[in-house]
Amino acid sequence: QVQLVESGGGLVQAGGSLRLSCTASGRTFSHYAMAWFHQAPGKEREFVAAISWSGDNTYYADSVKGRFTISRDNVKNSAYLQMNSLKPGDTAIYYCAAPRPGYCSSYGCYDPTEYDYWGQGTLVTVSS
Predict the structure, then answer these.
(1) 27 by DSSP, 3-state: which?
(2) pLDDT in tens, 108-128
(3) What is the rounded distance in angstroms from the CA atom of residue 119 to the CA atom of residue 78?
(4) Are 122 and 22 in contact (CB under 8 A)?
(5) In whole angstroms, what is the distance from residue 10 CA to residue 94 CA?
(6) How far apart, in whole angstroms, are the C-alpha atoms of residue 16 and residue 126?
(7) Do the bridges between strand 122-127 and strand 10-13 make them parallel or antiparallel, or are there none, so unpaired?
(8) Residue 38 three-state SS
(9) What value does the mean pLDDT take over residues 54-80?
(10) CA terminus-to-terminus distance, the chain
């Protein structure tokens, strides 16, 4: 299996930017699609963005299209989420996740139940 660790969260003003990182260890990182979810207090965990194992395919929630960019570096065993034009509504704990190897690459997976591996989360707070 793969272990995931997120970093890069913090406090930022509305309109600002943050870059989240997710570093993987364990099995071969390039075999896994990767995704980011977020969960605000009192709300369910929601899909944010995903990327295929090769990086050729990306998927985004409508709420973040044009503001967030997901990417990966298979040499560094890392995935990233560049978040621009942040809004107070983006405030949440952000989790990176991976499905089973080979899954969710040629097609998008948007449900948390489709993912088997999760990081511990990193908190993003956007002030108005």
Answers:
(1) coil
(2) 899 999 999 999 999 999 999
(3) 12
(4) no
(5) 11
(6) 8
(7) parallel
(8) strand
(9) 96
(10) 40
